[in-house]
Amino acid sequence: DAGVIQSPRHEVTEMGQEVTLRCKPISGHNSLFWYRQTMMRGLELLIYFNNNVPIDDSGMPEDRFSAKMPNASFSTLKIQPSEPRDSAVYFCASSGQASYNEQFFGPGTRLTVL
Amino acid sequence: QQQVKQSPQSLIVQKGGISIINCAYENTAFDYFPWYQQFPGKGPALLIAIRPDVSEKKEGRFTISFNKSAKQFSLHIMDSQPGDSATYFCAARDNYGQNFVFGPGTRLSVLP
Q: Is 70 exceeded by the pLDDT of residue B97?
């Protein structure tokens, strides 16, 4: 079975540019989570969706960040405009009703904003 | 109150030794406590988890000890191996939501 798929795996961009990170959750899972990981702040939940509906976006740092889940198999996290302090590893995770106690993480996208 | 505290920040253990990582929480609504293991360049993966109705859970060399009254739980890795070298996160989830609150992580190095 394919796990959570994220793309790109690495992204290098310049300050001010728009960045879009993509995630495909595990088929059948109905909850999707976006996390950001840095050395300073650890693993932070940015937003999570349940049945494609955003449930809690209190972790989204500011209006420059937005996330969508147009269908059950795809989600995006967009940063516009990007800033150097956004440099981090962004993880997508999913969980299902049958396995709601476990979140399955993707491999992450390492974002570097110059 | 949503915070999960974790210590130590880093840990170095000799092969064959016992690794112990401690976590503490405040929110009494938390009802599920997983531990995640993360290798460099990978996403975290579930290692072992416990509910507060038991005081201990063991899976192979990994044991969670849970103290409900003290609101503390810990991970013990027996006979630590170099392959256990990774970052370990404790986490907690309350019975109202699906999102986890993660501790800051412990970087474990097991020396050969």
A: no
